[in-house]
Design a protein that fits this description.
With 139 residues, the chain is α+β, with helices and mostly antiparallel strands. 34% of the residues lie in helices and 28% in strands. It has four helices and six strands. The strands form two sheets. Strands 3, 4, 5 and 6 form a four-stranded mixed sheet that branches. β4 and β5 form a beta hairpin. The chain starts with 10 loop residues before the first helix and ends in a 13-residue tail after the last strand.
């Protein structure tokens, strides 16, 4: 049974065996791991991705877990850029710090790669229904 939270990635892209018996982990795999970690941080409304990523979600019906994540994977280390939209009223430095900690821990634990950079780019603030209170009037 296929798990909805796991993005389908070509099996060859996930792990490529090298001549020295090393393992190369795909950028896509690291991006999905980071995306899941970011989605669990309180104060994150969503990921800021490009137009193509949004169309892909609509057409496939699956959530793109790597949306808004850019990854550069080397032999033993990786750099990660995260583009987010925050909830109105949250303290942005706290959200960014939590993202950095969770992404680093998740990627290093699951892949064995050293995360040398986790850059958080706040692309927007979700202000839907902020400052508007619904008042019920009893008759």
């Amino acid at each position: 049974m296929e798990n909805e939270n796991v993005e389908n990635v070509n099996e060859e892209a996930i792990v490529e065996a090298e001549n020295n018996n090393g393992i190369k982990i795909s950028d896509d795999v690291v991006a999905v791991i980071a995306g899941v970690a970011v989605s669990e941080v309180p104060g994150v409304y969503g990921m800021a991705g490009g137009f193509a990523g949004g169309i892909g979600e609509v057409l496939s019906g699956k959530k793109n877990l790597s949306k808004g994540i850019k990854v550069e994977v080397g032999e033993k280390e990786t750099k990660i850029d995260v583009n987010i939209i925050v909830e109105y009223g949250t303290r942005i430095p706290d959200v960014a710090f939590e993202i950095q900690n969770r992404v680093k821990k998740a990627v290093e634990t699951m892949t064995g790669l050293k995360v040398v950079e986790t850059n958080v780019h706040v692309q927007g603030v979700n202000t839907d229904n902020q400052g508007v209170e619904e008042v019920k009037v009893e008759e």
